[in-house]
Specification:
The chain has eight helices and twelve strands. With 228 residues, it is of the alpha/beta class. It folds into two domains: 118 residues, Response regulator (Rossmann fold, 3-Layer(aba) Sandwich), CATH 3.40.50.2300; 96 residues, Winged helix-like DNA-binding domain superfamily/Winged helix DNA-binding domain (Arc Repressor Mutant, subunit A). Strand 11 and strand 12 form a beta hairpin. About 3% of the residues have low confidence.
Length: 228
């Protein structure tokens, strides 16, 4: 059974979401502030985190940052009452996999959670998906980018984006195609959030000077590897 950490300071909403998720087969722990949620995460294993941004004691962004220091791979989904793009971009920069703006339907929350879990499920494919990128090895199933003995654990969206880039290595990855494949629509905000992930992948790959991850203006991105 998938274990969900739900951090929501509105007790009524939290109890409704907890009951709904448990009815759908998710073992759900409800915490009413960020510190309580962080304590729970340190003491137990969770497969998914649903985090409200605005919480007392410790806000959702701080909680996500501290969770990512412990586990870079556990899926994170933000609940936010704000519509400001800057807040949502900040969430993606902290390693969130998705967000949903209040008010929302429980069915939409469940669909988004299921989509993230499908993308991040280990061992889902029968064969391993491994790619060689210069001096790096990318293991899509394990969501790990490795160079020598150093391993960089990737989030599910980082893994999905890097996989698409690897499948189009030395060729252009169309921005709209990537957005629809990973974010399910090519809105302006999703395009901005994808730019954040491209910047992070570029940072991970910078130790090999033969690798370039470039923007192709108006079209998309290109992962270039000079093997000469």
């Amino acid at each position: 059974m998938i274990k969900v950490l739900l951090a929501e300071d509105d007790r009524n909403l939290g109890n409704v979401l907890k009951s709904y998720l448990e009815a759908k087969g998710y073992n759900t722990t409800l915490c009413i502030n960020g510190q309580e949620a962080f304590n729970a995460f340190r003491e137990d294993h969770y497969d998914f985190c649903v985090i409200d941004v605005m919480m007392p004691v410790k806000d959702g962004f701080t909680l996500a940052r501290e969770i990512r220091q412990i586990n870079r791979a556990v899926p994170l989904l933000f609940l936010t009452a704000k519509s400001m793009h800057e807040d949502k971009l900040k969430g993606f920069e902290l390693g969130a996999d998705d967000y949903i703006t209040k008010p929302f339907s429980m069915e939409e929350l469940l669909v988004r959670m299921q989509a993230i879990l499908r993308r991040s499920a280990p061992g889902k494919a029968a064969a391993q998906h491994q790619y060689r990128i210069g001096d790096f090895t990318f293991d899509y199933n394990r969501q790990v980018l490795k160079k020598g003995d150093a391993e960089q654990k990737l989030t599910s969206k980082e893994s999905e984006l890097l996989k698409l880039l690897c499948q189009n290595i030395n060729d252009v990855l169309d921005r709209s195609h990537a957005l629809k494949k990973i974010w399910f629509d090519d809105s302006y905000f999703n395009a901005r959030s994808m730019d954040v992930y491209v910047t992070r992948l570029r940072k991970y790959l910078k130790d090999d000077p033969r690798i370039e991850l470039i923007n192709v203006h108006g079209i998309g991105f290109k992962l270039l590897v000079n093997d000469d």
